């Protein structure tokens, strides 16, 4: 039986390997893992063995922690079981023990403890699943869309592993074949229950229990390799080959056959442009498919899913996985073999990956705000945004199929270097509203300037965001920080183009900016827009632009800490802070904006329920700022509804796009009489300058 189960498991493992290899190569993943062995080892210890992400969800995380460790520790019980089986077969006395440690009471205790804890874990899982059943909660259940039958089967199989273990060990104590003299407290309790049955019955139960224990494990092994519990084996690999610190931050450059795509030479007929078919996915993408546990944590945090849009990051992964499995014979066949495949497989293989009748509906693809909540929450490091961006790239660059409104933004970026199509000369107009000089880079950075202040398109051209720009400039001026701006020489970083999938326009803008920055000799940059910040800090290095980049909240918090900025005038207001996704989740800047507010006298802060790494998006990221939101509730309205539950005097944030999105939703609420007239959304820099200068509260 062992040989059959192992053969079936090996055949399935080989099938999965061949299927993944039918995808695109990803040499950069292997190279990174090799070059960062220390970081990868730490990730294995923290993510896999320490279950860091799972433990953020206390009840289910703790349950999973014990069940996962049971898999490791109970391997020793299986060594004992096989040893007893073989030794019993040879000598007639199955009193095998593991050499050196096999009679140690601590090991006996550990085995029983972890099995009992796993049993409690199973009860917790069952309760969690029952309480969160999609049958009662519908879309609100994180298990909505998951394969529920398989999950219950696995819980039952783990239960079978545990009760058969205690049966065989309890009986073994009574027959004298048990290796431990103490410590195995549950086995001893079971032995006490079985003892009255007599020696013969205990001997029979020991044999039956042993065979059942091994048999259950072998059946379970085959089930695991054919179910979502495949993650038991693939999760450590997926963590090993994932991006560090995670799949947020930089969008990845485009690759074809594992090589970076050079747009000067790339040929859409021979090169892979994003993902147009499932086989354009890299083997790492396939590993993501195999590793999804269907836990639905990503889905529960997704702003699109939570506002009744069709996108679920979980289903995005599962739909691709199911499609890949269905057409696996096609993917693994040679050209000549494909002709002989069944009609249904060939028909499915021809199904578009994205399309009205495709595997992924366009409304799913275009609903994503790139907020990173899915990536942040996924306990097995699945990189949803990479999947989404690759599909968008194909749709935009090959199919020219994307929401038409975004086309205007793309044209404006190409022609004017900003999404609104305004003249570049307008980029410096905000400076005229200040009562001090702001040096502008001509060819080179002024010698005494420490920072280049990257103003960003919104910061230079959008009225509400301009207030932040002026506040930051004033604060730097007060603190004595020397800075300069590029003015008309600054162009959009390319973030909206890249997040839409138009890598070509991103590349064009990025190269232009990098040339400007490098020619000017820029070393340090401060940016107010988290999207610019993310692109400059994390994505420009991909194209040779290496700078020390800080967000304005980081620099201002530092200046306050150093005593170079001293907020004095009390602001007697209750303020709730909204974490911008590209500042928080994508770049882990959570503390500094809060530190600044904490230093302003009189400010009373209250967190929204969804904050910090679980912060809820404003709806603008992923180029959604330039698309209509036609499906479900507006994301910015959902966020403002949440902000209103804290009854704030003001909502603060640290991103020009959040400022606009939340501001729009607040205006609608005011018009509907659902928010007080004085409520406004402001950047934390505006709060700080107000306290430092003793200015009155801004009027809406
Ligand atoms: S990035 Fe945000 S919007 Fe996109 S799928 Fe993930 S959670 Fe949903
Ligand atoms: S993608 Fe990750 S978070 Fe989402 S269901 Fe799968 S394992 Fe869970």
UniProtKB/TrEMBL annotation:
Residues 1-22 form the signal peptide. Keywords: 4Fe-4S, Iron, Iron-sulfur, Membrane, Metal-binding, Oxidoreductase, Signal, Transmembrane, Transmembrane helix. Residues 283-310, 358-388 form the 4Fe-4S ferredoxin-type domain. It comes from the Bacteria. One of its GO terms (molecular function) is metal ion binding. InterPro entries: 4Fe4S_Fe-S-bd, 4Fe4S_Fe_S_CS, Cys_rich_dom, HdrC_iron-sulfur_subunit, Helical_ferredxn. The chain crosses the membrane at residues 62-81, 101-128, 149-168, 204-225. GO terms for cellular component: plasma membrane. SUPFAM superfamilies: alpha-helical ferredoxin. Gene3D superfamilies: Alpha-helical ferredoxin (1.10.1060.10), Transmembrane di-heme cytochromes, Chain C (1.20.950.20). This is Fe-S oxidoreductase. It comes from Spongiactinospora rosea. The lineage of its organism: Bacteria, Bacillati, Actinomycetota, Actinomycetes, Streptosporangiales.
């Amino acid at each position: 039986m062992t040989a059959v189960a192992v053969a079936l498991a090996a055949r399935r493992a080989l099938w999965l390997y061949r299927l993944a290899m039918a995808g695109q190569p990803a040499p950069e993943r292997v190279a990174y893992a090799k070059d960062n062995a220390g970081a990868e080892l730490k990730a294995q210890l923290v993510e896999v063995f320490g279950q860091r992400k799972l433990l953020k969800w206390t009840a289910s995380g703790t349950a999973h922690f014990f069940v996962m460790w049971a898999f490791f520790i109970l391997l020793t019980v299986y060594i004992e079981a096989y040893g007893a089986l073989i030794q019993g077969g040879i000598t007639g006395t199955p009193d095998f023990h593991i050499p050196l440690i096999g009679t140690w009471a601590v090991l006996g205790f550990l085995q029983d403890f972890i099995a009992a804890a796993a049993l409690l874990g199973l009860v917790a899982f069952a309760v969690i699943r029952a309480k969160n059943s999609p049958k009662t909660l519908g879309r609100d259940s994180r298990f909505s869309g998951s394969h529920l039958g398989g999950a219950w089967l696995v819980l039952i199989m783990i239960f079978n592993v545990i009760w058969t273990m205690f049966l065989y060990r309890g009986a073994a104590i009574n027959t004298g074949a048990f290796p431990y003299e103490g410590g195995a407290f549950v086995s001893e309790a079971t032995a006490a229950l079985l003892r009255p049955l007599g020696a013969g019955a205990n001997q029979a139960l020991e044999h039956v229990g042993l065979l059942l224990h091994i048999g259950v494990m072998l059946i379970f092994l085959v089930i695991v390799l054919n179910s979502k519990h495949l993650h038991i084996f693939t999760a450590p690999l997926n963590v090993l080959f994932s991006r560090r610190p995670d799949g947020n931050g930089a969008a990845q450059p485009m690759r074809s056959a594992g090589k970076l795509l050079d747009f000067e030479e790339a040929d859409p007929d021979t090169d892979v442009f994003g993902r147009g078919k499932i086989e354009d996915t890299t083997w790492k993408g396939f590993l993501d498919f195999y590793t999804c546990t269907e836990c639905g944590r990503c889905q529960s945090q997704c702003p699109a899913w939570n506002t009744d849009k069709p996108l679920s990051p979980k289903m995005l992964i599962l739909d691709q996985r199911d499609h890949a499995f269905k057409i696996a014979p096609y993917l693994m066949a040679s050209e000549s073999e494909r002709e002989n495949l069944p009609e249904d497989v060939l028909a499915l293989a021809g199904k578009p990956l994205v399309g009205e009748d495709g595997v992924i509906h366009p409304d799913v693809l275009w609903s994503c705000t790139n907020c990173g909540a899915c990536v942040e929450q996924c306990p097995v490091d699945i990189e949803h945004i990479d999947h989404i961006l690759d599909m968008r790239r194909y749709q935009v660059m090959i199919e020219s199929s994307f929401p038409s409104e975004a086309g205007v933004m793309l044209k404006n970026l190409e022609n004017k270097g900003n999404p609104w199509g305004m003249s570049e000369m307008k980029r410096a107009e905000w400076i005229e509203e200040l009562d001090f000089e702001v040096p502008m880079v001509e060819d080179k950075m002024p010698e005494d300037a420490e920072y280049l202040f990257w103003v960003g398109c919104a910061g230079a051209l959008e009225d509400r965001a301009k207030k932040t720009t002026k506040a930051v400039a004033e604060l730097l001026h007060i603190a004595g920080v020397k800075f300069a701006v590029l003015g008309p020489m600054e162009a959009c970083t390319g973030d909206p183009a890249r997040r839409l999938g138009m890598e070509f326009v991103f590349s064009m803008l990025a190269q232009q900016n990098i040339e400007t920055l490098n020619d000017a000799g820029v070393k340090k940059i401060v940016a107010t827009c988290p999207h610019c910040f993310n692109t400059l800090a994390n994505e420009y290095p991909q194209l040779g632009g290496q700078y020390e980049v800080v967000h304005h909240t980081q620099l201002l918090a530092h200046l306050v800490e150093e005593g170079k900025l001293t907020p004095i005038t009390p602001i007697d207001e209750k303020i709730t802070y909204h974490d911008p996704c590209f500042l928080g989740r994508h770049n882990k800047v959570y503390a500094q904006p809060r530190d600044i507010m904490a230093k302003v006298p009189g400010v009373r802060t209250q967190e929204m329920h969804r904050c910090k790494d679980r912060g809820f998006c404003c709806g603008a990221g992923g180029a959604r700022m330039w698309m209509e939101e036609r499906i479900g509730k507006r994301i910015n309205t959902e966020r403002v509804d949440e902000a209103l539950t804290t009854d704030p005097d003001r909502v603060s944030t640290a991103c020009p796009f959040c400022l606009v999105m939340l501001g729009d939703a607040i205006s609608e609420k005011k018009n509907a009489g659902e928010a007080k007239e004085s409520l406004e959304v402001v950047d934390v820099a505006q709060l700080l300058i107000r306290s430092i200068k003793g200015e009155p509260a801004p009027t809406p």
